[in-house]
Amino acid sequence: MVKIFIDPGHEGVLNGYDPGAVANGLKEAELTLAIALKLKDKLLTYENVQVKLSREGNKKITLAERAKMANDWGADIFLSIHINAGGGVGFESYIYNGNVSSSTIAYQNILHEEIVKTTGWNDRGKKRANYAVLRETKMPAILTENGFIDRTTDANKLKNDSFLDNIAQGHVNGLVKLFNLKKNSTPSGITHIVQAGDTLWGISQKYGVTIEQIKEANGLISDTIYVGQKLIIPIGGSDVRDFKVGDKVKIKSSATHYATGQTIPNWVKGQTYTIQQVKSDRVLLKEIISWVFKKDVE
Ligand SMILES: [Zn+2]
């Protein structure tokens, strides 16, 4: 499991919160959050990834608290997202200017390259600085400065939601390379877009699934959801048995394909197997080392 900690820079746009740089009708804290949420959504389409954000909305939080959150969680990488200001154009990335691990340097190299390639930003180079979040985190930590909010050419890009998507995608492309991430085999289910007032409990009741099933299908580690978030609701939750590791099961004669797509040969059906792993809509059968849909075993 790869644990990716994302830190949207600054606190938010409410009164008394640190908004970061403000110019051209844009607020840094809002942009960093938008990019971070897109990044999270994209990362959760990969297998074996856990994502945690230092904030998922407006939130008072110090730099030390951000680092501590990632340290306590045992993150594999800390990624702080910022927007630049103060005269310049394009993209730069930072790591700590003291002692860093060789992986920190390797991570910066790959992330930097992928972000520049994906966004087409002017490349201002890989830099080092004594920033608190970089200094106080125990894992490789990289801070990205994604364009200049006070430069019209950059600001015009940052006003465009699909460009924010590109920025998030650039970060994803780097992380995919770093951790050799593989796409989730598409979990079967339907998509629910979170509306104002939705709770995980409410959604679970509406679709007849458990909160745990929703969390598992979406890689959620907390009960926090946000408006606009796309949740996969694993189908058949109420009529599919709750399988556990170690359960003995048989593959139904009606089953046709493994969850990975290959045809299930007839001689495999009707035999008893042991469940080694359980995931949203499928189970891993120990004796044949194959993923089979829950609906196809009994
Ligand atoms: Zn900033």
Automatic annotation (TrEMBL):
The molecular function terms in GO held by this entry are:
N-acetylmuramoyl-L-alanine amidase activity
Q: Which CDD domains match?
A: LysM (cd00118), MurNAc-LAA (cd02696)
Could you tell me the EC number(s) of this protein? 3.5.1.28
Q: Does the keyword Hydrolase apply?
A: yes
Q: Where is the LysM domain?
A: 190-233
Q: Which Gene3D superfamilies match?
A: LysM domain, Zn-dependent exopeptidases
Query: Known InterPro entries for this protein?
Result: LysM, LysM_dom_sf, MurNAc-LAA_cat, N-acetylmuramoyl_amidase_3
Q: What is this protein called?
A: N-acetylmuramoyl-L-alanine amidase
Q: Which UniProt keywords apply?
A: Hydrolase
In terms of Pfam families, this protein maps to: Amidase_3, LysM
